Amino acid sequence: TALIEKQLRADRKIDDKSPLSSAGLLVDHLELTDNFCINHGGIGFTYNPYEIAPYSDGAIRIFLTWQQLKSLIRPEGPLGWAAK
Asked: How many CA atoms within 13 Å lie on the side-chain side of 54?
């Protein structure tokens, strides 16, 4: 969750010390979503309208590269290939 929030802050240029709501989001802390996809570049998370932001923002997509996730991947696990 911390990595997703960090990427959201970077994508939206939100200061680390500011609450997410100060940038117009409906939440101050992110929860993991079940709406995700995995591809050769990493994992993408999609938050639908009203989940974390107003409808006018549309769906919010946050993408984490395998490099960003490397410390969380077990080399012997099913995503071990991504840690290399």
From this structure: 5
- Cα–Cα distance measured from residue 20 to residue 45, given in angstroms and rounded to the nearest whole number: 17
Rounded Cα distance, 66 and 37, in Å: 13
Parallel, antiparallel, or unpaired for β 36-39 and 42-47?
antiparallel
What is the pTM for the complete model shown? 0.87
- Residue 79 CA, chain-centre distance (Å), reads 18
Structure tokens at 14: 């939100």
Q: Mean pLDDT for the chain?
A: 94
Task: Give the whole-angstrom CA distance, residue 64 versus residue 44.
Answer: 6
